[in-house]
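[Discussion] Sanity-checking designs against the backbone

I'm trying to build intuition for which residues belong where. Below is a structure token string of 507 positions. I'd appreciate it if someone posts a full sequence so I can compare it with mine line by line.
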């Protein structure tokens, strides 16, 4: 068998890896992608779109939000606790990246907000034959990038696992890989780009580093194969550790993405309490998944409940829902009774629409996290919420409907009185799309060692290197993790080739 060697080797063919491969190959480098799965696109195949600012879509849609605004917004959001040069470069490039993607055949529906109050930065990929935002739309983008990679003769090795980064005298010389038949080999290269997507599917690492336990107080998306291998390889090769965080949101396990009317209704700005029966958030924020996830995580057993009764449901029956999301587009409670009956009779993820994110809920039973009762007493018995606390909270909440929310200043238009009838609770837990960060990089995506010096030939992009959000993901600029993945992949691909061509190159 011929020796495997290339100018650039990319570990992981997900969002950032396949983009890095195309970028490097466009600069005439020979490129090998080591992908342990059977497809490219990684976790991003589940997503819908990416961040950009000053794109042609935003200009056409008259979006008044500039690169300068985006830069200042993110720097304020993170209290400047981030890599300012990388943030600046990413934002600067993001609009042009949309043109670059279009040139290889990706189509977009336009730019969107994720929730009211967020910025219109989410560029949702168009699915052939449809003009509606659709779950998993971004997979079309990764198909186009993969076609482009093939056209540029990138060698994509599927079901091949990277095991170790090989170094000599402190610089990179290759990657040890495992072939599908179990045999191992060193693939040689002077530049290696690690794009393995973090550790969202590694409960042990999540417990140790993030402090949450999957199935107990965390019900995150676990995209198979995202195990932290790239990060461990880089740390073993001398990369300095920065503390990764969770791209944390919140979920009703087994319900969210499966029973969409119940899920969307129980995420309206209705009453939310903790196990003591006390409110802990201005429920207006429930449309910001990250802020709500943070608030829930601070409660006893890291859980919270939204509560609704027939009187509030009646309001929604007449007026429609307060919050309507782009991705689920549920406007009414028309399917409430049917879904509640399905949940209570024990239906699971098989009730999800075909091809929807609900597939990821396999094994979780909605009825373990959604409760119906004929009285507050019965509801408290089922959920474990303190009965005295909840009764006091509801009585006070109903007073606030008339006189204004003295707890958290929720807008009056969202203060719907709870006056009786059957009552329902949904139990929410922290969730997450995956992890963010783990190694420090320069604005050229060069990996730094513990002392802050570059490791010659080692690059990282995507989630492994995504430490730009500080301790909380910035959902006010939607599309940001995929945006960072694609843009940092582009940067890493170009820079790795420049390194090989430069005087710094160590052979
Ligand atoms: C349900 C869902 C919806 C999302 N929607 C959006 C959205 O609309 N917008 C947005 O901005 N973000 C979204 N995200 C987040 C986005 O998908 C990620 O930010 C993005 O995929 C990160 O790209 P990546 O290249 O770092 O990792 P990934 O895309 O996950 O790719 C990592 C790749 O590395 C491979 N790999 C891992 N270890 C090895 C190894 N040892 N050897 C070889 N290969 C290896 C994996 O198989 C995988 O293919 C969503 C995530 C989820 C889960």
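Best answer:
Here's mine. Compare freely.
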């Amino acid at each position: 068998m011929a020796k495997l060697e290339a100018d650039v080797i990319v570990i992981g063919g997900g969002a950032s890896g396949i983009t890095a491969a195309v970028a490097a190959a466009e600069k005439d480098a020979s490129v090998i992608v080591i992908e342990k799965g059977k497809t490219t696109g990684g976790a991003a195949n589940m997503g819908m779109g990416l961040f950009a600012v000053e794109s042609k879509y935003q200009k056409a849609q008259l979006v008044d939000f500039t690169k300068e605004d985006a830069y200042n917004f993110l720097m304020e959001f993170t209290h400047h606790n981030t890599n300012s040069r990388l943030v600046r470069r990413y934002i600067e490039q993001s609009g042009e990246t949309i043109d670059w993607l279009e040139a290889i055949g990706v189509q977009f529906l336009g730019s969107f907000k994720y929730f009211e109050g967020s910025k219109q930065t989410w560029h949702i990929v168009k699915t052939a034959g449809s003009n509606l935002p659709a779950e998993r739309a971004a997979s079309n983008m990764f198909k186009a990038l993969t076609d482009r990679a093939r056209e540029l003769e990138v060698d994509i090795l599927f079901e091949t696992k990277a095991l170790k980064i090989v170094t000599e005298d402190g610089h990179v010389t290759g990657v040890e890989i495992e072939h599908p038949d179990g045999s191992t080999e060193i693939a040689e290269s002077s530049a290696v780009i690690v794009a393995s997507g973090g550790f969202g599917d590694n409960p042990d690492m999540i417990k140790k580093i993030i402090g949450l336990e999957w199935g107990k107080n965390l019900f995150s998306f676990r995209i198979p194969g995202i195990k932290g291998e790239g990060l461990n390889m880089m740390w073993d090769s001398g990369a300095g550790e920065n503390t990764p965080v969770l791209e944390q949101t919140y979920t009703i396990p087994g319900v969210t993405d499966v029973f969409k009317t119940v899920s969307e209704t129980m995420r309206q700005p209705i009453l939310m309490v903790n196990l003591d029966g006390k409110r802990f958030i201005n429920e207006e924020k429930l449309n910001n998944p990250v802020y709500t996830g943070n608030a829930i995580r601070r409660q006893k057993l890291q859980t919270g409940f939204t509560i609704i009764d027939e009187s509030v449901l009646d309001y929604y029956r007449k007026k429609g829902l307060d919050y309507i999301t782009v991705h689920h587009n549920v406007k009414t409670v028309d399917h409430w009774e049917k879904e509640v009956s399905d949940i209570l009779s024990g239906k699971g993820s098989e009730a999800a629409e075909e091809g929807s994110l609900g597939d990821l809920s396999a094994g979780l039973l909605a009825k373990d996290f959604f409760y119906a009762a004929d009285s507050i007493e019965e509801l408290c018995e089922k959920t474990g919420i303190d009965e005295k606390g909840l009764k006091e909270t509801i009585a006070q909440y109903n007073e606030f409907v008339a006189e204004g929310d003295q707890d958290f200043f929720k807008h009056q238009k969202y203060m719907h009185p709870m006056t009786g009838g059957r009552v329902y609770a949904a139990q929410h837990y922290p969730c997450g799309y995956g992890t963010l960060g783990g190694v420090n990089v320069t604005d050229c995506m060069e990996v730094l060692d513990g002392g802050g010096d570059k490791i010659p030939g080692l690059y990282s992009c995507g989630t492994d290197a995504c430490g730009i959000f500080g301790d909380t993901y910035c959902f006010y600029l939607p599309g940001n993790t995929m945006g960072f993945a694609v843009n940092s992949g582009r940067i890493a691909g170009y820079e790795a080739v420049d390194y090989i061509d430069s005087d710094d190159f160590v052979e």
